[in-house]
Amino acid sequence: MGVPFEALIPYGIMLAMFGVTGAGLSKIRHMQNGGKRARHSVDQWDRVMMDRDRRLTGYLRGQTDNPSAPAGFELNNPWRLEKRIL
Questions:
Q1: Domain coverage including residue 15
Q2: Domain count across the chain
Q3: Cβ neighbour number for residue 61 with a 10 Å cutoff
Q4: Inside any domain, residue 22
Q5: Residue 75 within a domain
Q6: pTM value?
Q7: In a domain, 42, yes or no
Q8: Digits of tens for pLDDT over the chain (86 positions)?
Q9: Structural domain includes residue 53
Q10: Alpha carbons 80 and 14: distance in angstroms, whole number
């Protein structure tokens, strides 16, 4: 005796919803990375370079080919210093 097709409809709905959710999350992650693929094995050097790129371009994954830094970048220091106690 075969399985009635009515029993397979909920499984099809669940499969479709998981597929829509996965595709939506993938698209959101792709858009958050500026249209680039996700990075893997990001070490401290990569984090520093991504922070520098963010300060230069305004985007975490943004890069520029301009050889000179924009105005105000010389005051945009990533180091957080304590105030001196005298």
A1: 7-62
A2: 1
A3: 16
A4: yes
A5: no
A6: 0.58
A7: yes
A8: 677 888 889 999 999 999 999 999 999 989 888 888 888 899 999 998 888 888 888 787 878 788 787 777 776 676 766 677 76
A9: yes
A10: 50
